[in-house]
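Backbone-to-sequence.
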């Protein structure tokens, strides 16, 4: 089941992000980077993100096993950005990520946007490319933040 992210979900989502970074993303990033990212994605950070994004969680029973957020791109009304997409390592490859993308692609931020960007991890880049996101400006290498900028255009 997919539902909107709530304040009460913040700690569990933070733990999901930490587990996924340490398990899945560790193959593409140094441990120091992973641990620094985990410090950022704490519960309060996720609660603060609610002020400018819409978040979604995928629940398997009572457990949150996936999350994703969408918001405007630098406060633009016709551009959006995807953030903080994670699926529990034990549930990856089962269509949960695709369902979360479908949820955000039906969100108001997405529906009003001509362009949607996602700062993708190296780990998730090919997943997003399968869903129609392509390299921004043809750049295929990670930027200074270790992310690959992907984008999708829509006719609005």
């Amino acid at each position: 089941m997919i539902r909107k992210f709530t304040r009460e979900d913040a700690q569990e989502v933070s733990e999901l992000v930490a587990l996924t970074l340490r398990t899945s993303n560790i193959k593409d990033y140094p441990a120091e980077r992973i641990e620094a990212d985990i410090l950022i994605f704490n519960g309060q950070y996720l609660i603060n993100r609610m002020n400018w994004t819409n978040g979604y969680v995928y629940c398997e029973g009572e457990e949150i096993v996936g999350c994703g957020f969408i918001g405007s791109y630098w406060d633009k009304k016709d551009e959006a950005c995807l953030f903080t997409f994670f699926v529990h390592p034990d549930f990856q490859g089962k269509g949960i990520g695709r369902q979360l993308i479908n949820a955000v692609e039906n969100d108001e931020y997405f529906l009003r946007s001509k362009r949607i960007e996602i700062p993708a991890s190296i780990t998730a880049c090919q997943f997003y490319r399968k869903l129609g996101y392509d390299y921004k400006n043809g750049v295929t290498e990670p930027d200074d933040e270790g992310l690959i900028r992907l984008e999708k255009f829509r006719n609005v």
